Amino acid sequence: MFDVIVAGGGPTGLMLASELRLHGVHVLVLEREAAALPHVRSLGLHVRSIEVMDQRGLLERFLAHGQQYPVGGFFAGLTKPSPVRLDSAHGYVLGIPQTTTDRLLEEHAAEVGTEIRRGCELVGLSQDDEGVTVELADGTRLRSRYLVGCDGGRSTVRKLLGVGFPGEPARVETLLGEMELTASPETVAAVMAEVRKTQLRFGAGPIGAGVYRVVVPAEGVAEDRTVPPTIEEVRQQLRATAGTDFGAHSPRWLSRFGDATRQAERYRSGRVLLAGDAAHIHPPVGGQGLNLGIQDAFNLGWKLAAEINGWAPEGLLDTYHAERHPVAADVLDNTRAQMELMSLEPGAQAVRRLVSELMDFDEVNRYLIEKITAISVRYDFGEGHELLGRRLRDVPLKRGRLYELTRGGRGLLLDQTGQLSVAGWADRVDHVVDVSEELDVPAVLLRPDGHVAWVGDDQRDLLDQLPRWFGAAVG
């Protein structure tokens, strides 16, 4: 029997598997596709995901394959400078194709001991008080204590569970692909600059060797978006949108996506949980989808591991839904708003101009960018210090920096007083006595996901909070 079976070997599933392996959990990843797909849907990592990679010691390998860009211009394509005083040591967006992100996460998952089986399609599941039985398309049956569906917007796991997925169906559709263009780079750039003055769902960017990544609005909404468009359909829509098809030919791959907006009613049903696109889908504006899934996994991993390893306090696993469902609901709302602002209707354009004016105020610009990049997320831990419930940015310490201390996925008491203790929880919480000129509090207790669980200097108050997140003391 496995401890956890993860259905889906995309970024969410691989990140979750790696988080579970940090705590010795026996995990199996089942991926339906026999080989990695060439489709590049996501083009980068936002600030919070960059921080997540840094917290686990993965950032250097991502930086080696990506390019850093300013964080401005991500809200509805409104071009604004990067806001000042962004609350992060990583104030940039990392441009990196999803195929590379997938590969790096799969390599990391394998390094930490994850078993990954490709070409395995989940077609059935049942659960009881002791675990979950999974049935594969070839008739194989597997058993695990928990199952997590990270199997995308058309999630088989979610459908088999019967979990509702309310929201709005797609109203518009977009064609996407990589292909060669016979038009000169100068012509493509000039046409794109002109068309994008009004049509922000259009783009044609070079990716090397004469190949372009092309995005263009579709004529309508296909009945079955799993059927890719033809190159002729792409050419036709290029002519309708840009007045030219650029001589598009020799596609590497073609696909289509819609702007459906839906969210699972619940992220947990007994011993089965949902994460990533299986739990929420939304338009790709702002580039938040892949990042949201990675952050789901980062929240869930340590909690599920605590449950399996027997030290989770009562209700800890349920905080996954309580914390992440509102975060995704907010993403759905901001993508709805962005789609409205990108409409060509006169009323929407008037609102767009007004929002653009408001974003000239740095506080408004920063507010929207911190929302898109997820560094403004604050979980509800109750009343207390303004840091409570927020993730703590990487701060320099006298002996290194904060994120270097979080690589093991454990809790962390950063103690600037030298007077506190985590005796009884030392197997789950690291106690580091160090100081930072950028941290104006006596001490902070961080959960394994980097969110602040306690602030203060009172030992008895700390002892009241440790059991809430880290279970009963031992010894």
From TrEMBL:
Domain FAD-binding: 2-335
Keyword Oxidoreductase: yes
InterPro entries per UniProt: FAD-bd (IPR002938), FAD/NAD-bd_sf (IPR036188), RIFMO-like (IPR050641)
GO molecular function term, any single one: monooxygenase activity
Chain coiled-coil ranges: none
Pfam families: FAD_binding_3 (PF01494), Rng_hyd_C (PF21274)
Cofactor dependence: FAD
Keywords: FAD, Flavoprotein, Monooxygenase, Oxidoreductase
Lipoprotein as UniProt keyword: no
Database matches in PANTHER family: BINDING MONOOXYGENASE, PUTATIVE (JCVI)-RELATED, TRK SYSTEM POTASSIUM UPTAKE PROTEIN
Identification of the protein by name: Rifampin monooxygenase
Source organism of the structure: Allokutzneria oryzae
Gene for this chain: rox
